[in-house]
Structures are given as C-alpha cells and as structure tokens.
Amino acid sequence: MNTLNEKVIRAIRIADHVFRHLAFRESADDLFSYISSLEESDVIIDFSGVESITRSFAHQYLKNKDMSKKRIIERNIPSNVIQMFELVKKQKSERVRIDAEPIEVVDVVCSF
Prior knowledge:
The protein has four helices and six strands; from the N terminus they run E-E-H-E-H-E-E-H-E-H. The strands form two sheets. A four-stranded mixed β-sheet has the order 1-2-4-6. Strands 3-5 form a two-stranded parallel sheet. By secondary structure, it is an alpha/beta fold. A hairpin with a 2-residue loop joins strand 1 (about 1-5) and strand 2 (about 5-15). Helices cover about 40% and strands about 20% of the residues. The protein has a single domain (about 1-95), classed as Transcription Regulator spoIIAA (2-Layer Sandwich), CATH 3.30.750.
C-alpha cells in the first residue's frame, strides 16, 4: 500500500495480478471485480512488467475503468500499451458510417 496526501492507496502490479501479456476481456473484468472489492477508494495500477496488450483487453479495461467508482491511477505504462489505449479511445469516439446500396435478395431452394 502507498500513501498519497495521507490517504491509503492500494497498488496493484498488473503483470503479477493478471499476466505480462494482457489479452482477454475476462481478465480485465476479473481485475476490476477485484478492484471493486477493495476498501480503498484510490487504486494504483502499475503496468511495469507488461509486455503486450490486445485491443480486446484494452477496450474492456477502459470500459471497466469508466464504470468504476474507484479512482484509478495508472503508473509505468509502456509505450505500446499507451498506443493501444489511444487507438481504442479514438475508435470509440469516431462514428462509423456505412454507405450501402440495397440489393435484391433472391430466394433459392436447393434440393440434393
């Protein structure tokens, strides 16, 4: 545990709690289930030791972080993880427009 301005803060080294390769949405959900069970209102997530992150984990992590009632403080985030978080945030904020022309659908019955 760390203190920040006389406040007790729980520190979690994510590479030890999850794995150094952050891959699955479920892992992000498990991490935030653990975080929400903590008494402390402020939690430090230490990314030291993390080697890789998938888009799925990054998306779920950010989604859970947004919904969390805890104050999440991130430390030692590797550049590749920062880039993935930025990519997910950018894709989340962009609207996707699909222009499609209607097509005729033909009912085909095939007998063998």
